[in-house]
């Protein structure tokens, strides 16, 4: 089953359509399980980013898999802002080896009072722990978006307030 999103206008329709298709697939016990990467993006092998909740709204059993590349012989991570697809492909094809550790973790189901977001976070924490990675609360898409000036200013104000309240500035205590 392959579902492609063609435009931002179709995003809501695509989400509803995808959920319906996934539920139909899960309901048919003759079909094989679906492989979903709920992060929606790849990062540099150090952390697990926010999972999209849609994969966890459909019900059914989740079979978590932790995947971590070992970059000693060749790095499989592609920094698309730094390298073209051709350069990346040449790096991968000419590396000594691409070593990947894969851990199949125990199946997980949504608990009685748990919503999709909490379930996704619980699964994410188990995957991160097994892979020795940190858990990040933000979306991987942020790496491709420019940060709004208003957000930067808000964070700067919070930081200034924290610094001045804790005595790091003033009384000769500049650290």
Automatic annotation (TrEMBL):
The keyword Lipid metabolism applies. Keywords: Acyltransferase, Endoplasmic reticulum, Lipid biosynthesis, Lipid metabolism, Membrane, Phospholipid biosynthesis, Phospholipid metabolism, Transferase, Transmembrane, Transmembrane helix. GO terms for molecular function: glycerol-3-phosphate O-acyltransferase activity. One of its GO terms (biological process) is phospholipid biosynthetic process. Pathway: Phospholipid metabolism; CDP-diacylglycerol biosynthesis; CDP-diacylglycerol from sn-glycerol 3-phosphate: step 1/3; Lipid metabolism; Glycerolipid metabolism; triacylglycerol biosynthesis. Coiled coil: none annotated. One of its GO terms (cellular component) is endoplasmic reticulum membrane. Pfam families: Acyltransferase. Residues 19-68 form the Phospholipid/glycerol acyltransferase domain. It is found in: Endoplasmic reticulum membrane. Signal peptide: none annotated. Transmembrane segments: none annotated. It is a multi-pass membrane protein. Belongs to the 1-acyl-sn-glycerol-3-phosphate acyltransferase family. PANTHER family: GLYCEROL-3-PHOSPHATE ACYLTRANSFERASE 3, PHOSPHOLIPID ACYLTRANSFERASE. This is Phospholipid/glycerol acyltransferase domain-containing protein. It comes from Callipepla squamata (Scaled quail).
């Amino acid at each position: 089953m392959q579902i492609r999103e063609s435009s931002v206008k179709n995003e809501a329709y695509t989400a509803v359509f995808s959920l319906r298709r996934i539920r139909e697939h899960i309901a048919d016990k003759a079909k094989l399980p679906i492989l979903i990467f709920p992060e929606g993006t790849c990062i540099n092998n150090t952390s697990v980013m926010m999972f999209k909740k849609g994969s966890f709204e459909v019900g059914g059993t989740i079979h978590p898999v932790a995947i971590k590349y070992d970059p000693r012989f060749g790095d499989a991570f592609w920094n698309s802002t730094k390298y073209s697809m051709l350069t990346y492909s040449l790096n991968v094809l000419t590396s000594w080896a691409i070593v990947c550790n894969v851990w199949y973790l125990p199946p997980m189901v949504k608990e009685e009072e748990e919503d999709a977001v909490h379930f996704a976070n619980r699964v994410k924490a188990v995957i991160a722990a097994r892979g020795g990675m940190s858990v990040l609360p933000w979306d991987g898409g942020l790496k491709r978006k420019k940060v709004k000036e208003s957000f930067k200013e808000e964070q700067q104000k919070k930081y200034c307030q924290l610094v001045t309240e804790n005595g790091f500035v003033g009384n000769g205590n500049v650290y």
